[in-house]
Amino acid sequence: METLEEAELCFPQINTSCKKQTRPQSESMVMYILMSSISLLTVVLNLLVIISISHFRQLHTPTNLLLLSLAVSDFLVGFLVMPFHILYTEPCWFLGDLVCVLYYVLNIMIVYASLLHMVLISVDRYVAICDPLRYSTKITQRRVKICVLLCWIYCVFLSFLFLCDNLKQPGRYNSCYGQCVINIIGALDLVLCFIIPVSTIVILYLRVFVVAVSQARAMRSHITAVKLQSSVTVTVKKSDLKAARTLGVVVAVFLMCYCPYYCVSIYGSDFISSANLFLVFLVYFNSCLNPLIYAFFYPWFRKSVKLIVTLEILRPQSCDSNMMKETTE
């Protein structure tokens, strides 16, 4: 990578202005095209998920409601967070101190919402696999809606809590005019936004994995208990195991995208600043990957996308279409 060369001031009319840094035009062009393309793809793919689950009544299950809310947060990452991040990579910040703080408020709120939705999905799969007989009574649509609402409220509260000082006096941590710098207690961010939720996700899915493996072995061995069950019960269990596997892939990809940023941040601000652009965008890129995973594992999602693209959802009663015809999901 070429060394950035100093150029004129960001705001020549202001003595305290930051110095503008320039980068090779080819490098900037490639970066902007790549980041803009990923942002647009994230918006389109998650919009398809939102329309699919919202429109087709057969997809209104507790698990899919969690996926719907996760898709909303991923959509907002592509629609709001990524475009602002592209502007943030510019040598100078021209949108003012207040917009800088509000950008970080949106950033923390939306990205942390995605993280908490992963926790809720892990809890959903844990109950479905480890306590299947009481799943329908424990995990209801009403309870899921309440949990999703509380999740978003908590994320809004946490984002304002983290940036309270910055909101009181925007720009107080800038060393020169034209910067966008905020102050967050690193230890608090690491514990609340990474260690606690990620530990919860890993522990729950380890338990799900152990139970799923034991159930799979029991089915293959055709033990007496499995033979006595009805075919419907076995189908439900297979469906739950498949859903757990699919959402396990979602969680695994999520951890691969989030862990590098927080692991590197432990080494200090100097190290993280040098790799900040790539690691932060890797976190955002996870929002683009989730719909691709659905498309690969969920036949109902592929079918719904086909109906959306061909505009068949505009037909009367299209919301009652049978989306499970090709799958037991």
Automatic annotation (TrEMBL):
Keyword Magnesium in record: no
InterPro entries per the UniProt record, alphabetical: GPCR_Rhodpsn, GPCR_Rhodpsn_7TM, TAAR
One Gene Ontology term of the molecular function aspect: trace-amine receptor activity
Cellular compartment(s): Cell membrane
UniProt keyword annotations, A-Z: Cell membrane, G-protein coupled receptor, Membrane, Receptor, Transducer, Transmembrane, Transmembrane helix
Topology versus the membrane: Multi-pass membrane protein
Bilayer-spanning residue ranges: 29-53, 65-89, 101-123, 144-163, 183-210, 247-269, 275-297
Domain G-protein coupled receptors family 1 profile, residue spans: 45-294
Keyword Nucleus among record annotations: no
Entry's family note: Belongs to the G-protein coupled receptor 1 family.
Entry protein name: G-protein coupled receptors family 1 profile domain-containing protein
Species, as recorded: Channa striata (Snakehead murrel)
Organism taxonomic ancestry: Eukaryota, Metazoa, Chordata, Craniata, Vertebrata
